[in-house]
Amino acid sequence: MLKNLKYLRVIDPDPTALILEKIRIAENLFKDWGEYFLGDEKFINLLEDYKIAILKSNELMENLGSFKECYRCSVEENKGCCKIGLENEVTINILLINMFFKTLIPQEREVPGRCFFVGPRGCKIFARPYLCREFFCNRLLRLFSPEEYALLTQTISYELTLLYKICVYIRKELEYLLGDFLLELDIAGYS
Description:
single chain, mainly alpha, two-stranded antiparallel sheet
């Protein structure tokens, strides 16, 4: 049980401190248990299905002009949804999944006043939280026909279902490996 204490720490109320703490925990878990998961065929298959679903969602969003419109709003007009603090929707599980995808996890905020994971060209992580994938502002909704919106929500719903399955799988395995030690892998929010 003492081995598990390295995953706990008092968290500073600053939103950047919280995401840095989540990153630290995810890095420790990945270092300690990454090979275990990468040797698990069921996990690898789930991860591959999820990767394909993300790529399909991304392709559809690109084709429908969603990414271009978000870039225009966020970068060119300095508006956008990806404000400071939103990074705390990224859970430890989502960080771990990005590590399994070999995504480089930022260690500092690149764009002041924006989400920790936003760079000059957009989001820097591959696996993204539910809120970031399922939220469409009025500006975006005006971009889509009803048929396009239905197709997009169906495509993203499948992606998010797979994200949920992977998160549950990781949690179950880590609770088993850590002796049913309650580890809050899915914590999100701003406090």
